[in-house]
Specification:
There is one protein chain. This protein is an alpha+beta fold. It folds into three domains: 172 residues, Adenine-n6-DNA-methyltransferase TaqI, Chain A, domain 2 (Alpha-Beta Complex); 63 residues; 162 residues, DNA methylase specificity domains (Adenine-n6-DNA-methyltransferase TaqI, Chain A, domain 2, Alpha-Beta Complex), CATH 3.90.220.20. The chain is built from 16 helices and 23 strands. The strands form seven sheets. Strands 2-9-6-7 form a four-stranded antiparallel sheet. The two termini are 28 Å apart.
Length: 471
């Protein structure tokens, strides 16, 4: 026994793998390191002090931005301001060619990515930045760490139960077999991934046009961006007792909302088709040995789980479990086909109002809750098809109508729910609603299949890499 007393370190399969790797006389990760640091997470309660919008901010990378392809992903990226980047987090700055490695968190360990050309950013405490001095070295190391062999060697060295972690000595002790053929295999996967994602994005971007066309809604043409077109007048009577946000009264906003009423079908207010509306609850910290007579352990859905392209992303590494008081859990009354709306959060380029639908698969698999930043709506299924409403409200968000229905306090954007629920919703016959919903589901399934191909390619690539390295 080598200093460690936990059984996972001595699993025969992992011991045998390490012996095979060591027989190749590998270097250790520490042999490639010129500098090493991990970051920290500035307080979100003081967002104005530390954080910024994308346009004038510095990318703040977290575990979800790392990818097993070695390419950074920025879909769900936070941004910090220059003062934070050059002050509080100066030691963890990231530059082009740096190697970034996941060192904390459930799921796959030591996921690695490389900062692209011209990049400047920072990281939180669950990621470390390794200065290798060469983009090529970083890419080669990332390719090895992202292979199944690299992941198993890293996981063997991790400690901790519910939240595994790699300390620096453990991370730097990972044996590395350097072989340029690994990078060649990974590069092929990246190229195919980019092609698949471009095709998937094209499919998904067609949904809004299809839906609006089927409903006979024609959006106004955006006006030329001139000073004259940006100017408008609102009377004192219009704004008295209301909001002073200019977006609400702009000509473009008015025309956009007005276009929703010009549908080919009869319409009702969204509020009139809702039969239940309920706020969420953040609950209490999850812990072993809780009182099961008093609490229910729930997978709590937060804004983090909302996927802008599909629906909800509730995989193991992102899942958050909390203890919800039983009377409150009963009041949440979660069922399949309930809609969840993000009522607080958002950013400059992403207004609040993202929407999700609870599938039967999800409600059957988990005891579910939702946070106080999320609101639940249940529709009258005798009048509207839940999936049709989900798709319509998703389009409402995509065309930025919720952008004029949000207020902002302390850096957090809040959906003005009474204005949102007053929006019109076209009500075609139920058979037509079902037809539209099924067509859109088919488009999303095609896009998902393209996305899933990347996972298949990574599996095949990992098998090829193992064949190269160990045989």
């Amino acid at each position: 026994m080598e200093k460690r007393f936990d059984p996972f370190f001595y699993v025969p399969e992992l011991l045998e793998l390490e012996k095979k790797v060591l027989a190749k006389k590998p270097k250790k990760l520490r042999d490639y390191v010129n500098g090493l640091a991990s970051g920290a997470t500035p307080k979100t309660t003081e967002s104005e002090k530390y954080y910024a919008e994308k346009e004038n901010g510095v990318p703040f990378l977290r575990v979800q931005n790392l990818s097993p392809t070695g390419v950074l992903e920025f879909d769900d990226c936070k941004y910090i301001n220059e003062d934070t980047h050059n002050g509080m987090l100066k030691r963890s700055q990231v530059s082009a060619g740096d190697l970034l490695v996941k060192i904390t968190g459930v799921g796959r360990m030591a996921v690695a990515s490389v900062a692209p050309e011209g990049f400047e950013g920072n990281i939180n405490q669950h990621v470390c930045v390794i200065k290798t001095g060469s983009k090529e070295i970083s890419e080669t190391l990332a390719a090895f760490l992202n292979s199944d062999i690299g992941e198993k060697l890293a996981s063997r060295r991790s400690t901790g139960g519910t939240r595994p972690a790699l300390d620096y000595p453990a991370l730097l002790s990972i044996p590395i077999i350097e072989d340029k053929r690994i990078l060649q295999i990974t590069d092929k996967v990246i190229a195919q991934k980019q092609k698949n994602e471009a095709e998937a994005d094209k499919l998904l971007s067609s949904i809004d046009d299809y839906l609006l066309k089927e409903l006979g809604i024609k959006l106004p043409e955006p006006p030329e961006n001139t000073l004259k077109n940006r100017m408008f007048v609102a009377t004192l009577q219009q704004i008295t007792g209301g909001r002073f946000d200019p977006k609400l009264y702009s000509t473009q906003s008015k025309e956009l909302i007005k276009s929703l009423y010009k549908t080919s079908f009869k319409y009702q207010t969204l509020k009139s088709v809702i039969i239940q509306s309920c706020s969420g609850d953040w609950g209490n910290d999850d812990k072993d040995g809780f009182n099961e007579n008093e609490f229910v352990r729930c997978l709590v859905i937060r804004a983090t789980e909302f996927d802008n392209k599909f629906n909800l992303n509730v995989d193991g590494s992102r899942a958050k479990y909390r203890l919800i008081n039983k009377p409150k859990y009963k009041a949440l009354d979660i069922r399949a086909n309930d809609l969840l709306i993000e009522k607080s959060g958002g950013s400059e380029n992403q207004p609040v109002g993202r929407i999700a639908i609870l599938t039967k698969e999800l409600t059957d698999s988990y005891s579910l809750g939702f946070s106080n930043f999320v609101h639940k709506l249940r529709v009258n299924e005798e009048v509207v098809n839940p999936e049709f409403v989900f798709n319509y409200l998703k389009t409402i968000h995509n065309i930025k109508i919720t952008d004029v229905m949000q207020s902002q306090t302390n850096g957090i954007r809040n959906l003005i729910l009474n204005e949102y629920l007053s929006l019109p919703i076209p009500v075609p016959p139920l058979y037509k609603q079902k037809e539209i919903a099924e067509h859109i589901t088919g488009i999303r399934q095609q896009a998902q299949q393209l996305k899933d191909k990347t996972a298949e390619l990574l599996k095949i690539a990992s098998e090829e890499i193992e064949e190269i390295l160990l045989h």
